[in-house]
Design a protein that fits this description.
heterodimer; A: 2 domains; two-stranded antiparallel sheet; B: mainly alpha; 14 helices; globular
Chain lengths: ~350, ~270
């Protein structure tokens, strides 16, 4: 490659971010650390090895580009995560915390906390019912929309994705209004004579959970569809046409040709959706307020209650947050294992 | 003929999906123009009470302030996130090295950390720095996200390296190459990132709720959530407030949706 030439001009015209002296020193140190240097003179006078030096400098520039983001993520994600762990080993109200005795006291308490177990169960009900239905619907919709002969493709896509632009609080309140006792859904169902008296949607365990699941499906199906659509566009259409020519019907083609090629994307959306469902908060807070009697409350909602309402108990809340972290990690690991196996 | 017939189930499915997707939004818009009584009697036609609802809303809530703070938070987050994450994604791909790959792997792990697990220490951290109720505290955790860095790194794969080499020969500095050449060519990736970040920041609820203790700085999602908690709910006013809270993010999405789709497709390869 034309390394030296480019590097020469590059060196002459570009001012590095850091002081030149420090740069030189660094490159010399690195050079000295390597066993390989060909000519001893080269190591002493970097001028004679401009290609090597500019590579070093470029590598350094790359690191400079990464540093702000990396530091922010370390500061805003990893550091608090570590702190939360230490917090989870402490007890006490408000800011007066002492080490728990035994250290795992908060974790032990989780297992006998009936509200926690209930919110855990609720969250899993949402996860197990909603995520598979949503992903299958999203796959079907994406497959339909990927048809080049389909009319009004843009219109369908926009309409189905539109719910994602609406905030979680907003849609929760819209659903709350529609499913109110004297609200629209009851009126429609009664008009169709499907029910005789209004259903108390948000006041009963089963129906409250049902409304949350419905809301989640409404809000997130289009989101996942967009990811599948993007992945479908990168699939070679010839594979699908070949299957068709070989006599496979649309369902077989979809299942045996399209779906396997979408597998990485299905894995990604499954992990993202699982992650999101485990952390559900806005719907529980705004749509059902966790009720009736905690039976539709999610873990994050309970965490918020423990942390910032009544008597804040940061230590116990941190233990709960680590339970959530653990569940997310375990489920992601399982999904990745399963995702890999089918290869 | 048979070909058209075979398409019927597909079209029927899409029609139902599209109607179901749009209907709650239609309901929201229509209800904003009706009285609470009309909303509860399931009136699905536009009414004449929009101004009345608006006056009632503005009279009881500081909507202007909530809109202002939502906008400040969302715009600041979007601008900073785009700059910091795109420069990082660019750095990972263009100045590729094994060490950087390793760092990327570590940063991606942050994607798996639930917000719940960092929320309490974050709150304590900002409290110690005396930043509770500040815009900085609202936006700082949302600026650098592994997802955006990944999006930009993947999109940078298709960015021709020859252009960078040529620019270097022409004597352009690395930062100028990024800002003057890379940034303008990657417009659709930036649009996709902007849509995602703006929508997430505008609609963010839990963290602002935690860190903005005082109602002075409350955002639109917080405002409408508090409306719900009132003793008597006026559904017309509520739906108008929800409409106002949703509008900016929807407008941004509709304005950038073409580039949004291109950007996502470009990044997934």
């Amino acid at each position: 490659m034309a390394g030296p030439l480019i590097a020469g001009r590059y060196r002459g015209s570009v001012r590095p971010f850091s002081a030149a002296g420090r740069n030189t020193q660094l490159s010399v140190t690195v050079t000295a650390g390597r066993p390989e240097p060909a000519s001893p003179a080269g190591a002493a006078t970097p001028r004679r090895r401009p290609g090597f030096r500019s590579e070093q400098r470029r590598n350094l520039t790359g690191w400079v580009f990464l540093i702000p983001a990396a530091l922010l993520i370390a500061w805003m994600n990893f550091w608090p995560m570590i702190q939360a762990f230490f917090l989870s080993l402490q007890t006490g109200r408000g800011t007066r915390l002492t080490w728990a005795e035994p250290l795992w006291y908060n974790y032990a308490r989780l297992f006998s906390d009936e509200i926690f177990l209930l919110t855990l169960q609720n969250t899993f009900v949402y996860l197990i019912i909603q995520v598979p239905i949503m992903l299958v619907l999203a796959l079907i919709l994406a497959n339909l929309l990927n048809d080049r002969n389909l009319r009004f493709r843009g219109l369908w896509r926009t309409a189905i994705f539109l719910p994602c632009a609406v905030g979680l609080v907003s849609y929760s309140l819209v659903f709350r209004t529609m499913f109110a006792n004297d609200g629209l859904i009851n009126d429609i169902l009664m008009g169709l004579h499907l029910i005789d008296s209004p259903v108390n949607w948000l006041g009963q365990t089963g129906t409250a959970r049902f409304v949350i699941i419905l809301g989640l499906l409404w809000r997130w199906t289009g989101y996942n569809m967009v990811f599948y659509l993007a992945a479908l566009q990168n699939i070679d259409n010839a594979t699908i046409e070949a299957a068709r020519i070989d006599g496979a019907g649309p369902f077989k083609t979809f299942w045996y040709v399209t779906v396997p090629q979408l597998k990485p994307m299905i894995l990604l959306t499954a992990i993202m959706s699982t992650n999101g469902t485990i952390q559900l908060f806005d719907e529980s807070w705004n749509l059902t307020q966790g009720g009736p009697a905690y039976t539709s409350m999610t873990m994050s909602h309970y965490l918020y209650e423990l942390s910032f309402q009544k008597n804040p108990n940061f230590g116990y809340a941190a233990a709960l947050s680590y339970a959530i972290l653990l569940i997310v990690a375990i489920l992601a690991a399982i999904q990745m294992k399963v995702g890999d196996k089918r290869d | 003929m048979t070909r058209t017939l075979r398409r019927v189930p597909g079209y029927a499915f899409l029609t139902i999906a599209a109607l179901v997707s749009v209907f709650p939004l239609y309901f929201m818009v229509i209800s904003a123009t009706n009285t609470s009584q009309d909303v509860l009697s399931s009136r699905l036609l536009p009414g004449a009470h929009l101004i009345e609802n608006f006056m009632a809303l503005v009279g009881s809530q500081d909507v202007a302030s909530a809109m202002y703070w939502s906008a400040v938070n969302a715009i600041a987050t979007t601008v900073l996130a785009l700059v910091i994450c795109s420069i990082a994604g660019y750095g990972f791909e263009i100045f590729h090295s094994r060490g950087k790959d390793r760092l990327m792997g570590i940063l991606l792990l942050a994607m798996m950390i639930p917000f719940a697990a960092t929320m309490i220490p974050l709150f304590q951290m900002f409290a110690e720095m005396d930043l509770v109720n500040s815009t900085i505290a609202v936006i700082l955790p949302a600026i650098a996200t592994p997802f955006l860095i990944l999006l930009f790194r993947q999109a940078s794969r298709s960015f021709p390296h020859e252009i960078i080499e040529a620019a270097r020969i022409d004597g352009l500095g690395e930062l100028s190459i990024f800002f003057r050449i890379y940034l303008p060519t990657m417009r659709s990736t930036y649009a996709a990132a902007a849509v995602i970040t703006f929508m997430a920041a505008w609609n963010n609820f839990l963290w602002p709720k935690v860190i903005l203790v005082s109602n002075t700085y409350q955002t639109m999602p917080m405002l409408i959530s508090n409306l719900r908690a009132g003793y008597v709910t006026d559904y017309g006013v509520l739906m108008l407030a929800v409409l106002l809270a949703s509008l900016p993010a929807v407008v941004v999405f509709l304005a950038l949706q073409r580039s949004f789709a291109d950007g996502i497709t470009g990044a997934i390869k």
